[in-house]
């Protein structure tokens, strides 16, 4: 996620995901927020997450993956 090219893939995943998939992606990235803040390219991902988080904060639910543990 901190790579100059790979961060675009993650951003595109966030953009193209269905709401349920986006929620899973957000919860998987959330533990890495502190590390991502240290990297220029990680900050792009955080900006994208903030965009969706602020827009849909009520829909995020509890931190963690789906109840069955599967993606």
Description:
- With 71 residues, the chain is mainly alpha-helical.
- It has a domain at 15-56.
- It is 61% helix and 0% strand.
- The chain has 4 helices and no strands.
- It has helices at residues 6-16, 19-29, 33-36, 40-56.
- Helix 1 packs antiparallel against helix 2 and helix 1 runs parallel beside helix 4.
- The radius of gyration is 12 Å and the shape is globular.
Secondary structure elements and their pairing?
Blueprint: H1 6-16, H2 19-29, H3 33-36, H4 40-56
GO molecular function: mRNA 3'-UTR binding
GO cellular component, one term: cytosol
Domain PUM-HD: 1-53
Strand content: under 5%
Uncertain spans: 62-66
| CA radius of gyration | 12 Å
How would a crystallographer describe the biggest sheet? none
Strand and helix order: HHHH
Number of DSSP helical runs: 4
The helix fraction, in percent, is 55-70%
**Strand segment count:** 0
Overall spatial form:
globular
Residue-averaged pLDDT: 81
Distance between the termini: 19 Å
Output the structural class.
Answer: mainly alpha
GO molecular function, one term: mRNA 3'-UTR binding
Protein name: PUM-HD domain-containing protein
GO cellular component, one term: cytosol
Keywords: Repeat
Explain briefly what this protein structure is.
61% of the residues lie in helices and 0% in strands. With 71 residues, the chain is an all-alpha fold.
Descriptive tags:
71 residues, PUM-HD domain-containing protein, mainly alpha, ARM-like, ARM-type_fold, repeat, single chain, Pumilio_RNA-bd_rpt
């Amino acid at each position: 996620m901190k790579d100059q090219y790979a961060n675009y893939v993650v951003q595109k995943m966030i953009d193209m995901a269905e709401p349920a998939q986006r929620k899973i992606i957000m919860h998987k990235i959330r533990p890495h927020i502190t590390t991502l803040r240290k990297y220029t390219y990680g900050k792009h991902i955080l900006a994208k997450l903030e965009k969706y988080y602020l827009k849909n904060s009520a829909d995020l639910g509890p931190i963690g993956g789906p109840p069955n543990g599967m993606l």
